[in-house]
């Protein structure tokens, strides 16, 4: 009797047994259709077996084994199993979650027809010189299509620029190009020698970093590339990518944000014109994602560039992993399967016995600690390539009166910068007009009725909005509590700074960049164009602007409201603030002149600001580590949080009290803390509470969690939703 054990997308920590007479060991990792309850479900075969613990008459048969795409390889299955065990998340959900959506559907995959474009005779005859100088996208399309006799697929062509889709349309209308439908073959692995277009000559530090990596034997080696902003980490990565490709291996390059992928993708494509590069992130449509995933799995793609979910991609020839901005919290998923893509990438590198590089100007303390201990090798880039480090100053807001949240010093600096024809950035990490509306006579504030959060005032569309649950309402004309008609916005958001600056500098060209203003598709791309074309004097932005963007004309950065995270209750507050401010400050002065950064603060003497001014993260990180050690916080202890959600707070807390009592019966060296309401104790009408457990030993923590999980499964009633969060980033 042949039995297959199948992973299904259900929240139960088990596999499901089915009969499958036709199953063979090469079917492990393949998708199957199975009856599940009254439905038909897609699952993945994890194991073959000859017996089952179920009574035979209850074991149903597999409906079909889907052999349309190759099975998940064993190393990916092992990674998924590890992920399920380590994060205490049902294997079925982990496995199915790792597949592109198309493969989670019941239909077998039809041969994918994709549109290709190719030049017509008219198109071939066009004299490129006759096109107007501004038709850069069309010129590029013509150039690409001239080089490709069979035409090029639509997805690739559209990816060269946001305007490419429109250009393709016009060119078709002109009869220059034609569209042909072709069956998409899975790309074949290429063994051709791949060209590497050299970049700028490396600096000595960059060269040294490249050489160090080359000097180490193959095998698992984790590296920390500790490079100040603008030190040219990307060029170092690219050299390693070239080396890896030359050995016929694949590269996995993980980045924190999709916003950052287009620029990097363009750069990498330009440098490796003959290598198949695919990206994997949530911004792709289903068929693009499937196509890219298959190209990675077949080995055809040399480079896979993606956000955290890309860590699960099958890569048969994987030779090297890069995690850029490794400290970024977006590598950790904060709901459902709460995994850290950085940590899984490390596990994967170890499993495949390959090198991995974690790059950052401000590595996570966990990473920095490992580097100090010698668990990771460190490569340092201490100097900016093209510019001097920015001059960072604090503006003491206890001494200076503020005008709409801005000091005279900042306003003067803005004026001077504009006079020189350079750009400025005001960084404020709050969107909307003001974080809260308040009644000065009775103290009422605009709270969300569904969350323990304030409603944010959005003046532009005359709304109060909750940034957590999406609730919105009209702005009240009078205080709901006392009837006072003179309600006041409290504090600053991007919109308020925007209108204040427009008033103070009437001629200035101001651009606000936050989640509200970039919501439209391609909005962000257009904004970047405006900035580069110098059509903007002052940028106002949230952390969207902080990361990785290179604006050559930007020379002044003003930071408003940084103090709010200085004394936050989260012990990671300072670490995060330092990283964020380093990134923001890194935007200043990438061009020829020295950048200036003004931080408005009530605590100019604070160690964090002092270290920031000296551009000395390592020293600051060592201080933080000493504090963490003394206080018994990670990375000196290992933590997990049990999160509970219920309609009533008491239900959640009671569940946690029981869980804590149950835990106390388990032997092991863990500390179980008291249940507390979550830092945001109510969201969208749901009460949230949590308790932390920690241990000085990681294996100790996991031994405890394994035993505890079984008890929790039994204890939880229907009224509570709970989840374990291992190595949590938010407490
Ligand atoms: P990081 O990621 O370390 O902040 P980047 O990799 O973005 O820095 O590099 C910063 C800038 O320096 C980029 O514009 C890049 O093109 C440029 N650059 C990097 N290396 C060199 C080099 N060796 N010579 C000249 N320019 C370089
Ligand atoms: Zn009132
Ligand atoms: Zn809300």
Can you characterise this structure?
The protein has 731 residues and is an alpha/beta fold. It has five domains: 3-104, PriA, 3(prime) DNA-binding domain (GIY-YIG endonuclease, 3-Layer(aba) Sandwich); 113-183, no CATH class; 204-381, P-loop containing nucleotide triphosphate hydrolases (Rossmann fold); 391-434 and 491-620, P-loop containing nucleotide triphosphate hydrolases (Rossmann fold); 638-726, Alpha-Beta Plaits (2-Layer Sandwich). Helix content is 31%, strand content 23%. The strands form eight sheets. The chain has a seven-stranded parallel β-sheet with strand order 11-12-10-13-14-9-15, with helices on both faces. A six-stranded parallel β-sheet has the order 16-28-27-19-26-25, with helices on both faces. Strand 31 and strand 32 (686-695) form a beta hairpin. Helix 7 (204-215) packs parallel to helix 8 and helix 19 crosses helix 20 (698-715). The longest helix is centred in the last third of the chain and has 18 residues, at 698-715. The chain starts with a strand and ends in a 5-residue tail after the last strand. The mean pLDDT is 91. The protein binds adenosine-5'-diphosphate (ADP) and zinc ion (2 copies). One zinc ion is lined by residues 439, 441-442, 444, 479, 481-482, 484.
